[in-house]
Amino acid sequence: MSDAQLEPVKIAAPWMDERSHGMLRTFFRDGLKSRCVLVEPDRAQAILIDVDRGDATRRLHDARLRWPEVPVIELSVNHPDQALFVRKPLRPKGMARALMSVRRKLRLSDDPVAESVGVCPGEAVDGAPATAVAAPRGPVPEPGTENHYVGQASDLDPAAPANWSRAHYDPAQFLQGHLQRAAAMADATGRRIAMTGVWGCWMIPPGNGAIELSMPDQYLRSLCLVTMNDSEVRLDAADAGADLTCSPEQTPRDVLLWKVALWTARGRVPLDAPLDAPVYLRHWPDLNELLVTPDAMRIAALWLNHPISLFELATRLDVPQRHVFSFYSACAAIGLAGPARRAADTLIEAPEVGATGMRALLGRLGERLGLGTQTESA
User: Fold this and answer.
1) Which residues on neighbouring strands pair with residue 270, listed in sequence order?
2) Between helices 321-333 and 310-317, what is the axis angle to 10°?
């Protein structure tokens, strides 16, 4: 039976937080080719429990009491001597073996996924690095619409700071700022935040959970272009319960924040972003999910792990400043970038990267992301 004909195994992780749920969704989709999906416990065909956290004994007892007919998959760094066990950090082949056991227990059709899966691109669950495989590239702006994301402003003169103000904007005056505030409240409380405005009501989850949007991009972009004061947006704590099923109409929180930031910034940076002082990139953004702006890979390749000023990034890469400014704004909106004020951010100076070195680096990155050979052209 082909992969497309097999019904995905429904898995619940009732004692994991929303951030872990988001990681599991990505892992199930990319690493296991959607051969399992995350659902609420009452619909589950298997329960996943991290026995290294919390009161594992009580949770295992509660799971078997509440869902006596549902297999329990134990996740741990050590083997607990259970048939349904997956070692941390999660790897596709280990999880695939557990899925085969679940399918056999439930008398589902045989699943060839154990032999066919590779390694999940990016990071394994719990943050352990995993070897990446070829992955599809994220969405790119449609031809002729790049100015929607990077604007059309000409470069600033680094020697004329009096003109730098035109490269700044205040996210707090736009939808972006209200969305970031709702996300921060959700992360701080661990609960969804109901964000109400002219668009209706969006439920903003903690972590990178899913947000249900029933709005075409053209209308959402229009909302990003107008100023919006606090009286026009209401933020309230929502019910603690959450639907863990990610439907096609739902968008991961980071994907929404990234897109909203690009539409709002349009080649500018937030007010607190210095143009001539080092800024850091915490880690590589997931360009398999996020919209890929012009020169995004080249900017990230030079910037990663080496704090550098935005002016210098544009100069070294010989790209328009607005490309660098937009990429920074989107990274900052999802917490990946900011001013390098910490000692740890300024210990290493950005190295000189010659043309040959840059071509080699971009070639390796292109192969890693399954994009083929990448050139240096702007």
Assistant:
1) 169
2) 130
Contact 163, 128 (CB under 8 A): no
Q: Would you call 257 helix, strand, or coil by DSSP?
A: helix
pTM across the whole model: 0.56
pLDDT class of 27 with cuts at 50, 70, 90: confident
Instruction: State the Cα–Cα distance between residues 53 and 77, nearest whole angstrom.
Output: 11
Q: What is the mean pLDDT of residues 36-64?
A: 87
Residue type for 304, please? L
Cis peptide before 89 (omega within 30 of 0): yes
Contacts 24+ apart (CB under 8 A), 296-302: 296/327, 297/362, 297/365, 297/366, 297/369, 297/371, 297/374, 298/358, 298/362, 298/374, 298/376, 299/323, 299/324, 299/327, 300/327, 301/358, 301/361, 301/362, 301/365, 302/350, 302/353, 302/358
Which has more confidence, 265 or 305? 265
When mean pLDDT is compared over 59-63, 295-299, 322-326, 373-377, the highest value belongs to 322-326
Query: 333, 286, 295: which is closest to 141 by C-alpha?
Result: 295
What is the CB neighbour count within 10 angstroms for residue 260? 24
SS3 71: coil
Measure the CA–CA gap between 378 and 369, rounded to whole angstroms.
Answer: 19
Give SS3 for 235: strand
Of 329, 337, 222, 224, the closest CA to residue 270 belongs to: 329
Q: What is the pLDDT of residue 370?
A: 56
Q: Which is higher by pLDDT, 107 or 311? A: 311
Q: Which domains does the chain have, with CATH numbers?
A: 3-127 (3.40.50.2300), 147-368 (no CATH)
Expressed in percent and rounded to 5, the helix, strand and coil fractions of the chain are 40, 15, 45
Per the document, the length of the chain is 378
Closest CA to 206 of 168, 178, 242: 242
Which structure tokens are listed for 349?
């100076």
pLDDT at 240: 55
Return mean pLDDT, the chain. Answer: 79
Q: Average of pLDDT values for 37-55? A: 87
